[in-house]
Amino acid sequence: MAIVGEFTKATIQPAGLMAMQKDDTLYFNSGGGLATLGFQSILYRLPVSAFSTTPNPIPDSPAPVVVFDHTARPEKDSHGMMLTMDEHYLWVADRAANRVIVVDTATHAVVNEIDLAGPISTDPAPDLFAMSPSGESFYVTLRGPNPLSGNNTNVNNAKGVTPGLGVIRVEQEGMTGTLQARFAISNLDGTGVERADPHGVAVRTPPLLVTIRASQVEVCWNSQSNLTYQLQYSSKLTTNLWTSLVDCVRSTGSKSCLSDPVVAGQPPRFYRVVQTNCVPAL
């Protein structure tokens, strides 16, 4: 592991938290935090192929491109982000503005802003995302009234009123969504003050079941009847480039399996299964 690029604050604002890669594009953000770090809501992108495996002596290179900059808005703090199941959209949480900024990964353009404040919570303060195995829901941590980190009391950029786990229903294939439920988390101290402040979130999924036979690899996964899936493989885990082994298969039960012939001398293969809205060929 080596540092292959360095950027100054004049080029990339501080208080960055997340980075997500879609093919050759690396998205990363800059948000709020301590007063010395500033308060902004900026999303940048960089071409991964522009980096080399050797240290780059030229600072601020390659030059980042600003996808959006909401720093002029009165409430802003870009924080968590997550790609949708098919990676066509990138969701970026602004916990100060109670919004999700939706970016089209094909055009790098902002195509929607989802307002999460409403009947579920008047001030949810969305923080970090995790995606359900089906991709039909995003889980999001909702900050509490006494934030333990990343908050400046002068602006309360990380302060919410309903600490817990929110469930956002993904709609229009990721173009939009609705906060449909909240599971409350509470931690009252001895004086009755709420101290709960959820931050991290992760989803546990059953592992792939792989059986190595003499002439083929069998890949099985837990599935849902009538849903469609795509089996993909890659020869390296250091890249996000995956090749479809089977473009589209419709499940007929709670378990699906596909086989891949083993060819002598071919590179090793790593497999993943993606649930899609594809239509199987007749």
Q: Ends: how far apart?
A: 47 Å
Per the principal axes of the C-alpha atoms, what is the gross shape? globular
Number of helices: 0
Radius of gyration: 21 Å
Number of strands: 18
H-E string? EEEEEEEEEEEEEEEEEE
Strand content: 35-45%
Average pLDDT works out at 90
* Model regions low in confidence, pLDDT < 50 over at least 5 residues: none
Strand order of the largest sheet: 1-2-3-4
Helix proportion:
under 10%
Query: The biggest beta sheet, please?
Result: 4 strands, antiparallel
How many structural domains?
Answer: 2
The chain-level structural class is: mainly beta
Describe the model:
With about 280 residues, the chain is mainly beta. The model has no long low-confidence stretch (mean pLDDT about 90). The protein has two domains: about 20-185, no CATH class; about 210-275, Immunoglobulin-like (Sandwich). The strands form five sheets. The chain has a four-stranded antiparallel beta sheet, with no helix packed on it. It contains no helices and 18 strands. Helices cover about 0% and strands about 40% of the residues.
Features:
2 domains, four-stranded antiparallel β-sheet, mainly beta, 0% helix, 41% strand, 282 residues, globular, Immunoglobulin-like
Give a short summary of the structure.
By secondary structure, this protein is mainly β. It has strands at 19-22, 25-30, 42-47, 65-69, 78-83, 89-94, 99-104, 109-115, 126-131, 137-142, 164-171, 176-184, 209-212, 216-222, 228-234, 243-250, 255-261, 270-276.
List the helices and strands and how they pair.
Layout: E1 19-22, E2 25-30, E3 42-47, E4 65-69, E5 78-83, E6 89-94, E7 99-104, E8 109-115, E9 126-131, E10 137-142, E11 164-171, E12 176-184, E13 209-212, E14 216-222, E15 228-234, E16 243-250, E17 255-261, E18 270-276
Antiparallel strand pairs: 1-2, 2-3, 3-4, 5-6, 6-7, 7-8, 9-10, 10-11, 11-12, 13-14, 14-17, 15-16, 15-18
